[in-house]
Amino acid sequence: MPSWLSDIVFPIIRWLHIVLTTLIVGGTLFFELVLPAAIDDLKREQQLYVFARARWVFRWVVWLGAVGLLLSGVAGAYRMWPAYQSVAFVFITRWAVAHMAVGALALVIALLLTVGRRPPEDPVRWMRLNLVILLVAIFLGSATRHLQIVLREQEQRELGGRVPEGVPTVVDVPTGPATTGPAGTRPSEP
Fold first, then answer.
1. Helix, strand, coil percentages in the chain from 3-state DSSP, rounded to 5
2. In sequence order, which residues have a C-beta less than 8 Å from that of residue 155 and are 6 or more positions away?
3. Has residue 135 been placed in a domain?
């Protein structure tokens, strides 16, 4: 893939990953905090009806979000795979794998909460648990990204590229298996 195209595609994929995560976390918060307070004054039958209708709509958000997160996550992992193969990135790879595993667990729970005609027993407890798992997955993803940037800055310093303290650098991340060059950077194009 040409570098100009990857500079367009991969930020869009990252943005999509963040937006889909936000929709699932926001929906979970809605079901845990907003919906119970909003339907508290209704009769039990009406509460169940409103909850069932909201669950039906949220099901599509969860299923489409899960598919989108899986695809955008695979694309992001593909982009970073050459860097994860380097010896220096072994520590970061563990964080990335933890992010993927915890995120997958959260998606499985979210999908199970939306499968079937009836919600599972005590769905609010499951949603609270899933919210905590989602927040841990977000933390792991954020920490992984931070460690990638720190390691890349350290490599640039070691290679003689002067990076002033406190100034963020543009991180040149490999875009595929055919990438070669010092410290995993893309070779300059003619």
1. 75, 0, 25
2. 88, 183
3. yes
pTM of the model: 0.73
Tell me the backbone φ, ψ of residue 43, rounded to 5 degrees: -70, 160
pLDDT at 99 > cutoff 90: yes
Q: How confident is the model at residue 134 (pLDDT cuts 50, 70, 90)?
A: very high
Closest-CA residue to 155 (of 99, 95, 87): 87
Domain count, the chain: 1
Q: What is the structure's pLDDT at 135?
A: 95
Give the integer Cα–Cα distance in Å for 30 and 26.
6
Q: Is residue 92 part of a domain?
A: yes
Q: How far apart are CA 33 and CA 149, in angstroms?
A: 35
Range of the domain at 69: 3-178
The CA–CA distances, whole Å, from 184 to 89, 160, 181 equal 11, 15, 6
pLDDT of 123 reads 74
Residue 162 pLDDT: 55
Taking the C-alpha atoms of residue 6 and residue 124, their distance in angstroms, rounded to an integer, is 41
Sign of the alpha-carbon torsion through 148, 22, 70, 10:
negative
CB-CB contact of 180 with 187 (8 Å):
yes
User: Is there a contact between 169 and 156 (Cβ–Cβ < 8 Å)?
Assistant: yes
| 56: exposed, middle or buried (Cβ count in 10 Å: 0-12, 13-18, 19+) | exposed
